[in-house]
Amino acid sequence: MSGHSKWKNIMHKKEKTDAQRASVFTKIGKEMAIAVREGGPNPASNSRLRDLISKAKANNVPNDNIDRIINKASGADATTYEEIYYEGYGPSGVAVIVEATTDNRNRTAGDVRHTFDKYGGNLGQTGCVSYLFTDKGVIIIENDGEIDEDKLMEDAMEAGAEDYESSGDVFEIYTEVDDITAVREALEAKGYTVVSAEKDKIPSNYVTLTDEEDIKNMTLMLEKLEDNDDIQQVYHNWENEGEG
Fold first, then answer.
1. Is the pLDDT assigned to residue 224 strictly greater than 70?
2. What's this model's pTM, rounded to 2 decimal places?
3. Closest CA relative to residue 236, chosen from 83, 25, 91, 40
4. Tens of pLDDT along 18-49?
5. What is the DSSP string of 169-231?
6. Which of 4-13, 145-154, 155-164 has the lowest mean pLDDT?
7. Contacts within 8 Å (CB) and 24+ apart, 212-218
């Protein structure tokens, strides 16, 4: 399984500006609001909320902010967000899936379409590229040089993981989406520090861009999409990302 998780982006979040951190807080808050609406405000019985609280803490969201988000989402006047996926192509046929959480479908669709058009992409119909991706859980553990790799692999498989990969700075552990929480909690109980535990979409094949203009446009397109507060994740099968 190819290591196409977002660990590099996760590491970079530690160095984000205040404005970018605020955007991360906003995005996590929207996810938490949906989790509360669907599963209730108690993280003990709501595994999705429990995972998001861990994600929020990993991104240095203060506990007061977390409590405020949960309380607001539990109220009668809570903003209603919906999750929407957009599919399309970047330059030279790179497959792109955009995961959005929005309270205004028209605004978000317009923003996404504009970004695709501006950078040489093409927003397509639902299903046009999703068949190229498989949903998996990806758990990231930072390689601090002190972890026994064989023991980690053994512990991960015992906890219910499907696959495992070492990518230099991190260990990537793959699970079924429904098993993310159980595997993460089992590993944390054994003393491992989890950097991230999230759903990811793993491409079945990759596209390499060689034209400099395509590479520039693809980079700008991803940055523009990821800077949009309505957009939670951008999945794609461009293998050049992070290599330059």
1. yes
2. 0.86
3. 91
4. 667 788 889 999 999 999 999 999 999 999 99
5. SEEEEEE-GGGHHHHHHHHHHTT--EEEEEEEEEESS-B----HHHHHHHHHHHHHHHT-TTE
6. 4-13
7. 213/91, 214/91, 214/92, 214/120, 215/240, 215/244, 217/90, 217/91, 217/119, 217/120, 217/121, 218/90, 218/91, 218/94, 218/119
